[in-house]
Amino acid sequence: xxxxxxxxxxxxxxxxxxxxxxxxxxxxxxxxxxxxxxxxxxxxxxxxxxxxxxxxxxxxxxxxxxxxxxxxxxxxxxxxxxxxxxxxxxxxxxxxxxxxxxxxxxxxxxxxxxxxxxxxxxxxxxxxxxxxxxxxxxxxxxxxxxxxxxxxxxxxxxxxxxxxxxxxxxxxxxxxxxxxxxxxxxxx
Length: 188
What we know:
The chain is mainly beta. Strands 1, 2, 4, 5, 6, 8, 10 and 11 form an eight-stranded antiparallel β-sheet that branches. The longest helix is centred in the last third of the chain and has 4 residues.
């Protein structure tokens, strides 16, 4: 008896990449949780501990309202720093605003990407940047804040994430440092 003809809707077992039978090894399945955001940040983008004028408000869907980043208080002309090491993936204008995007090193696939706006770029696409390196200066106009601010965004692929998650807890804390007693040392 002859074998049945192949099903035209069945995935091609010799094809590579995503198929109807499942995702490729490099593409996570839709139900897989997103990898956690590593705390790779070493500095705030502006200032020492700038005021967060508006926090991250994740949208319910791709076109739903929300705030896809955080707004940090910053003076016009202040330096805007890369929070972690990476490569500049974009430096130019988007919708009339200066934007710098940095693809962060060693943050998984797809890599994390930070964005800073409105800025006057001091770097070019392809430049390697170190943590704390100034990538631009705050533009006095073009912000959606009442005063001047830097909108700091974070994406993994097309998914927006909270950029504050890049900062380790010791960098996010406010207030003075406290010294703790050293065990085994007698008190005066």
